[in-house]
Design a protein that fits this description.
The chain is mainly α. The chain has a domain of 217 residues. Helices cover 72% and strands 3% of the residues. The chain is built from 14 helices and 2 strands. It has a two-stranded antiparallel sheet.
Length: 315
């Protein structure tokens, strides 16, 4: 029981971190139709900026300044990059953001090098929040859950309960009408893109010291974030949230429990002998194939429901 409860908490923390990162990508796609390949690179920039700001001013100023700077970078990318290639179609947008991935990674390596940065959890959050069955739950993980939940509530209130949210949603479906009412539709899209990049930067601030701040962190988080967005449904914030929690739980429990596929299905059928290829596959521990499970689930959902769990358009 203690392993299950601790793993549930750890899976929830990791899942909410995935949601914080994937929600920005989902917002950008749902509002603009742009699948930003460089989104995880903005997450990496947020972690490095938070490291630099925290060195001089502390963690709390970094929690505010780094997302704002990432949002400003996102606005610059949209104004001087995406807006110029938009008339060439989605392929040009994908290629542009794909090229940004390499530019950002090489830029980070040139400025900060390839070694991990000593970006640590602040001392005032580095203590056990509570003890569960003899295992300490760090206060910083509770802080991550608090920030993630607050971000989710803020996004929902912005989109559903404010005039700004109404304008954003109307600009998505009826841009000409919104423009006729006197609103600057291109600036609305710039604000959405900047906001999505700001969320990625916020994920970098609180995830950079929880995981590791290094030049390959975008490569580590980028693929799983796209799995979350596709699995939940392109453009669906609710689907993104559900998919993030599912993927966080799957990857956490796969590492903890030392079971094999044969152990799970042995009551239903006879497991092939070990000397056969199928037998060797079925007896591989789940901890070794855990990183592959999200991608297997993505393939399964695409076969069964191509638009994802709660998506409104086919992928």
């Amino acid at each position: 029981m203690e392993i299950i409860l601790v793993s549930l908490l750890n899976g929830l923390v990791y899942g909410m971190l995935l949601f914080m990162l994937a929600s920005g990508l989902t917002l950008i796609f749902s509002m603009m139709g742009v699948l930003n390949f460089a989104h995880a690179s903005i997450y990496m920039i947020g972690a490095y900026l938070a490291f630099e700001v925290s060195r001089w001013f502390g963690f709390l100023p970094a929690l505010i300044l780094a997302p704002i700077l990432c949002g400003a970078i996102g606005a610059a990318i949209e104004i001087w990059g995406l807006r110029r290639v938009h008339h060439n179609g989605h392929i040009a947008e994908l290629l542009f953001t794909f090229g940004l991935v390499f530019i950002v990674q090489r830029g980070v390596q040139m400025i900060w090098g390839m070694l991990p940065m000593p970006y640590r959890v602040p001392s005032y959050l580095d203590f056990p929040l509570f003890t569960l069955y003899g295992a300490n739950f760090p206060a910083y993980r509770g802080f991550m859950l608090l920030i993630s939940a607050g971000m989710l509530l803020a996004i929902w209130l912005l989109l559903k309960k404010t005039r700004v949210g109404l304008i954003i949603q109307a600009a998505l479906t009826h841009p000409n009408m919104v423009s006729s009412l006197g609103h600057n539709v291109p600036m609305v899209f710039t604000g959405v893109f900047a906001g999505g990049c700001g969320l990625a930067g916020l994920a970098g601030v609180i995830g950079g010291n929880y995981l590791t701040t290094e030049s390959s962190m975008a490569d580590a988080m980028g693929p799983i974030v796209f799995v979350v967005v596709v699995f939940g449904g392109l453009g669906s914030l609710a689907g993104c949230f559900i998919a993030s929690i599912i993927m966080g739980m799957i990857q956490t429990f796969a590492v903890v429990f030392d079971y094999t596929i044969a152990d799970m299905f042995s009551p239903l059928f006879k497991v092939p002998e070990m000397d056969t290829l199928l037998g060797e596959i079925l007896t591989v521990p789940m901890s070794r194939i855990g990183p592959l499970l999200p991608y297997a689930l993505m393939i399964l959902i695409l076969l069964v429901r191509p638009r994802g769990l709660l998506g409104t358009r086919d992928t």
